[in-house]
Amino acid sequence: MTTTIGDSRTSCDEDQINRFFPLVDLTSDPLGFEAGDANLYRYVGNSPTNATDPSGLKTRAEWEQAAQNLIGFKPGSPTHPRDILEMNRRITAAYAEMYLRDPSKFVWAGMAAFASCDVGKGMSQARALRDEAGNPLIAIGAVLTGAPTGTELATALGKGNLEVYADIYWQHLAYAQGGIKEMRDLKDRGELLVEQLNAWELIEQGKVWEGNRQLLIYEQSVTLQKGVYAQHSKAFKNMSWLADYAPWMLKSPIPGHDVAFTECVPGGNLGAFNDRWKWIDTSMLPSWKKLAQENPARVREMMDEFLKGKFTK
Q1: Fewer CB atoms near the end CB (10 Å): N or C, the chain?
Q2: Is 9 within a domain?
Q3: Which domain covers residue 157, as residue numbers?
Q4: Domains contained in the chain, number
Q5: 10 located within any domain
């Protein structure tokens, strides 16, 4: 999960368009997103004479391809900020769908759905910071934070979100369909890291929250640290400094969790893993666990809204 600027919880993005997930509840594909189609109500891409429902994937490459197919991702795309925002919406919905398959196991996916939605809001806000010639607010903001342009920041956020999805979501598909045996086979073939298998073993043993916590550690310490935070270290350091005076800049994506980063880690640097992990592990993750366990009906409502392409607190 990535953390982003902003405290608006009125929508998952500026459009609130139900573009990919129909409002009419017809008979959905029993395979869910594993069928490789972002539209759960369409059979084999509306081409029944030329395709069949995919199933029985075994290699990492095939699982990764299935994950890419369901959000419509192709290598080299998307590049336009609006297309990246569309991709973010699909990723958020994919996380929500995975969580709803089995909320007792896929709690990382549920937390990732909230975080991905916040990424979408951050991208929308970044896009609003157009590189308008002579705009003093943009110039001052760039000097203070060392930040990239609004378009560059939106692209970086979207890229980080996509990297997390590409690195971890396919594992959920593999476990959902093949169980722990599939994960062990992937590890034996050198296609799954030992620490990742250990996380799924914990989930299989019923130690669900610890297993999902291990997935979260990998996401933060490896995927996002290398793909986002290290590449924009100056911007995140200065952003954290500004947030000491404006805590709302770095708020939690978890509904009901009002502890900002700087309130949990005074003087901390969001770009530093240890500081960021302290906030996540001691404050944000317990808040998500409490919400999921004490108000599952509300969580389901919010996940359903993600599937429709919107989110209302």
Answers
A1: C
A2: no
A3: 32-307
A4: 1
A5: no
